[in-house]
Amino acid sequence: ELFTEGNLPLLANKPLLRRLDFNGAVRWADYGGSGTIWSYKAGLDAQMAAGLRLRGTYSRDVRAANLGERFDRTGGTANITDYGLSGNPAYPITIVQGGNPNVQPEKADTFTIGAVYRPEWLAGLDLSIDWLSVSLEGSIESFTAQQIINACYQQGNADQCAFIERNTTDNRIFIVNQTVQNVSEAKISGIDVEIGYARRVELLGGGETLGARVFATYLGENSTTSSTGVKTDRAGETGNYQTTTSVGLPEWKLTAHLNYVRGPFSAFVQARFIDSGMLDATYNKNGVWDVADNSV
User: Fold this and answer.
1) What is the DSSP string of 184-248?
2) pTM of the entire structure?
3) Strand pairing category for 173-179 and 90-98
4) I need a labelling partner for 288 at 20 to 30 A (CA). Which of 25, 31, 55, 243 fits?
């Protein structure tokens, strides 16, 4: 592996522009089992007048599967709802999950644009906003047995149907292979916003600081697309037990806290907001009515 990174100053001390820098990086790596991979990044960072900073980057990011994603294999059981049989029966099945030695490195094109504002006219205030867009080719994914079944029979995704085997006697599902796999495409986009303010106060004798900060994230897209063109966007999927995160993928998440400090004493109060959404992005699709109410 070889890596180099550099920063090049372009402009300085111009009207409305205090500093403009270019930064870039290149990495070459040769992975056993995956071959040679190049990744690189280029960005601009502009420090404007009056406390405004602008920044933007483009990068080609590459990730090869780790040892667990390539070689770990375990078996087990799962309870599923079979949308391939009349009446959609629910029953237990055998699953095989884990590594796939044939999984290929994923490649992503990442764009970010952001701004930070710390006004000179109001000390202690800072605001930032960042937009992110990531498009992955050959994204390394691992789906649950139910997600594979839903994609196959509700969305017509032939890629996922290949991981399902049925008994020849009763046509029930015998096994679902939950192996790590490359999907054709995956996309993520969103916006992060942060607002903070801190100042000295005199509420209980002086020497005190009161601060407030709000973090908000908007998820515009979190989708995968199969080689047959079937797209599943899970942005707005809130509280789904099938996801790997505790709160799913809500469109909006927000955390706010208020902090008070006086000498060795500090106290804070914090609040979290998770947006409403849907239970599963694949439910009630293609004329198949899975649940009466898909909202959370």
Assistant:
1) EEEEEEEEEEEEEEEEEE-SSSS-EEEEEEEEEEEEEEEEEE-TT--EEE-TTEES-TTSSSTTE
2) 0.76
3) parallel
4) 243
